[in-house]
Amino acid sequence: MGPAAPTTGTLAADDILAFAAELAEAARPIARAYFRTPLDIVTKADESPVTLADRAIEARLRGLIEARFPDHGIFGEEMGVKPGTAPGNGPVWVIDPIDGTKSFVTGLPLFGTLIAFLDGGVPLVGLIDMPALGERWTGRPGQALFGAEPARSSGCRSLSAARFFTTAPDGFIGEDAARYRRLSAATALRRFGGDCYAYGLLASGHCDLIAETGLQPYDYMALVPVIRAAGGVVTDWAGADLTLGSDGRVLAAASPELHAQALAILRE
Is the keyword Translocase assigned to this protein (predicted)? Predict the structure, then answer.
């Protein structure tokens, strides 16, 4: 008899992940229907664009979650926290309908739908879906997959050999910008504009290091189970686990050794 499946409270992680995949399948056709079409773009208070697609996807996903798990909490980018949700307690779904909205509205296919399942504030199941590319990463305790195949980080241990990603260098301000420049200069090469796609690439061994700032919980919670199960490390810039209350500074690395080297520079 094999080992018991990891559980999330009273639910098996595999069951939660299967439902997350159903949510992603529901989101894909909506994103594709709006992608590279004229869009009604609104600028939010944080200056990020919101589109009809964001709202349509989140409404659809929230409806499906409510129907399947009416007692679960929901925290979404566009519609906020479901009434009665206690994000640090019990089961909560954290969703970003379109991560990389700026990519979406400019026709760049590197946008994704992020779905995370948390229990007691801990991200246990995560999914990164790339609707325009037809690619998907999933993670749960003990298993990271790219499609149906295992995903594994590169294991890179040297900062001088690391392939470094960040979404936008101009997102770093003040002392964060100085820290970013020091870290970037210490790596082998730099790429920009990947949004959540970069984290999938890290999980599959194609990049080694990612540093970002100004993220929200719906931007990073789904990434945590994927990267950890793939053998990588992901924390805030102080080396602490990411939570719903983290300050938005994220550091992801392909190995503990690489993470420690990058963390030392960010702490300088």
Answer: no
- Judge whether 7-150 and 159-266 match in fold: no
Give the pLDDT confidence of 80-91 residue by residue, as tens digits. 889 877 767 789
Q: Is the pLDDT of residue 166 over 60?
A: yes
Q: How many CA atoms lie within 13 A of 86 on its CB side?
A: 6
Tell me if the pTM is above 0.85: yes
**pLDDT band at residue 10 using 50, 70 and 90 as cut-offs:** very low
- Three-state SS letters, the chain: CCCCCCEECCEEHHHHHHHHHHHHHHHHHHHHHHCCCCCCCEECCCCCEECHHHHHHHHHHHHHHHHHCCCCEEEECCCEECCCCCCCCCEEEEEEEEECHHHHHCCCCCCEEEEEEEECCEEEEEEEEECCCCEEEEEECCEEEECCEECCCCCCCCHHHCEEEECCHHHCCCHHHHHHHHHHHCCCEEEECCCCHHHHHHHCCCCCEEEECCCCHHHHCCHHHHHHHCCCEEECCCCCCCCCCCCCCEEEECCHHHHHHHHHHHCC
- The domain segmentation of the chain, as residue ranges, is 7-150, 159-266
Check if the beta carbon of residue 138 is closer than 8 Å to that of residue 199. Answer: no
The CATH class, in words, for 159-266 is alpha beta
pLDDT band at 47; cut points 50, 70, 90: low
Look up the CATH architecture of domain 7-150.
Answer: 2-Layer Sandwich (3.30)
